[in-house]
Specification:
Two copies of one chain form a homodimer. With 69 residues, chain A is an alpha+beta fold. Chain A has one domain: Alpha-Beta Plaits (2-Layer Sandwich). Chain A has two helices and four strands. Chain A has a four-stranded antiparallel β-sheet with strand order 2-3-1-4, covered by helices on one side. In chain A, a hairpin with a 4-residue loop joins strand 2 and strand 3. In chain A, helix 1 packs across helix 2. The longest helix of chain A has 12 residues. Chain A is globular, with a radius of gyration of 11 Å. Chains A, B: It holds the Pfam family HMA. Chains A, B: GO terms for molecular function: copper ion binding. Chains A, B: It comes from Amycolatopsis endophytica. Chains A, B: Keywords: Metal-binding.
Chain lengths: 69, 69
């Protein structure tokens, strides 16, 4: 399992958290998504390393932005 | 038709707006709900005057608060 922490900007409430969690959770191989709303830190547990593009696309789909790492 | 403007606190994003709109829109007699996110102003068009209690309960149900008028 791989655990990666991303930073997502623009989330303001638990609805935002739910949207991001749902979209990232739909990426193949993702088994867990944890979001810390105050910091925007999103921890993703996956079977294998994810491509940043896949994560970025999911975050965009939810209506938010992935910060550069 | 009666048009009343309430102030709802705690909304931060369009998901919040959607939740409040849905809950207030479910009150019997309500035909239109317009929300201005920056100010929290919620304009409700209804067939007859609504009770503040009904509106307060709907806003609470959505997870937000009705400001005192």
């Amino acid at each position: 399992m791989t655990e990666t922490v991303y930073t997502v900007t623009g989330m303001t409430c638990q609805h935002c958290v739910a949207s991001v969690t749902e979209e990232i959770g739909a990426i193949a191989g993702v088994s867990e998504v944890r979001v810390d709303l105050p910091t925007g830190a999103v921890t993703v547990v996956s079977a294998a390393e994810l491509s940043d593009d896949a994560v970025r696309a999911a975050v965009d789909e939810a209506g938010y932005s992935l910060a550069e790492r």
